[in-house]
Amino acid sequence: MATRQMVSAKVSTLNPGTIKQHLSGGGVLVAIGPVCTRVSIEFPSIREEFLQLYHGYPFLKGPAITDYYLNVYARNFYRRYIRPQVAVNTLMNNDFVPLPESMGMVAVEMGMNWQVAFGWKSHILFHAGVVEKDGIGVIIPAVSGSGKSTLSAGLAYDGWRFLSDEFGMLEARTGELLPYPRPVSLKNESIAVLKEWVGSDIPFSREYTGTPKGTICYLRPPDASLKAMKEPVKPRLVIHPVFNPDARPEIRPLTKTMAFFRLVRSSANYGDIGAPAFHALSKIAEECISCEITYSSLEEAIQLVNEVVGRCRS
């Protein structure tokens, strides 16, 4: 695999005019874990929001391997200046519904998610959050609405290293989890929960109302997690979260068989990877503690995670 040359400067220390010039023209290379995306954005307002949200992320200078291209543009003059509307081109077989310019960052994040979900075959992908503390890697798979992103973000701002809230990336050969720390996508009620938990508005984007998924807000991971985005970790725990506002806190261990099938269910490319994915997931199910936690609040969920981690250490 070719080596990618990292630029030591971050968005905050580079000349904003230079970065904006790249964004508005041929694009700027953004490196997030193992993924390198060339992003170009036609709309000035969206470029500003992009730079705010990706403050502190590393950029590459060429030559570099580029995995994906993402172009955010207007389809015609009318949609650029009169009732402006954002279209997204990922150079893949996609047909995104155009969004108003005011939801431009939602379009950017949707496009980047699409590219990885349907195009990334180098690693086994889980629809999962991934965090780490003291060398203990935790996979948090869940269906949408289960509180996966809220829990992953809450742990990230409670002393854990954040690797992902959307795509867990597993190297089949080594059994290691690779960081892919994109901004956390928070929806509806979880936004207020995390703003209270984090205690500062600085790492948050503005709130985007009226999207297909309701109100969305993005949370930038802690700087320490961004600086460690090249450091993999071995999985030790698999925790399936279930949010229920009326439930009592509970930890339910899973059998190794159930643990395996739930991992398969959460994988986006298990069938594409084939036999290596089967062996890798079988090893996780055999060697890791797997359980389901039910909780009614973020604080309760974090207490349960810490309890399970304590069992792992004992």
Shape: globular
How many domains comprise the coordinates? Answer: 2
**Poorly predicted ranges (pLDDT <50, ≥5 residues)?**
1-13
Query: N- to C-terminal separation?
Result: 39 Å
Q: What oligomeric state do the depicted chains represent?
A: single chain
Secondary-structure-based class equals alpha+beta
What string gives the helices and strands in order?
EHEEHEEHEEHEEHEEEEHEEHEEHHHEH
Output the number of helix runs: 11
**Sheet with the most strands?**
8 strands, mixed
Number of strands: 18
Strand proportion: 25-35%
Query: Rounded to an integer, what's the Rg over CA atoms?
Result: 19 Å
Helix content: 25-40%
Mean pLDDT: 90
Essential attributes:
single chain, 314 residues, alpha+beta, 2 domains, 8-stranded mixed sheet, 5-stranded mixed sheet, 11 helices, 34% helix, 30% strand, globular, disordered N terminus
Description:
Helix 5 (148-156) crosses helix 11 (298-313) and helix 8 (256-266) crosses helix 10. The chain has 314 residues and is an alpha+beta fold. It has two domains: 14-119, no CATH class; 124-313, no CATH class. The chain is built from eleven helices and 18 strands. It has helices spanning 16-24, 44-53, 77-81, 104-119, 148-156, 189-198, 223-227, 256-266, 270-273, 275-287, 298-313, and strands at 6-10, 28-32, 35-41, 58-60, 68-73, 85-89, 99-100, 124-133, 136-141, 161-164, 167-171, 176-178, 184-187, 208-211, 214-219, 235-243, 250-253, 289-295. The two termini are 39 Å apart. Residues 1-13 have low confidence and may be disordered. Strands 8, 9, 10, 11, 12, 16, 17 and 18 form an eight-stranded mixed sheet that branches. Strand 8 (124-133) and strand 9 (136-141) form a beta hairpin.
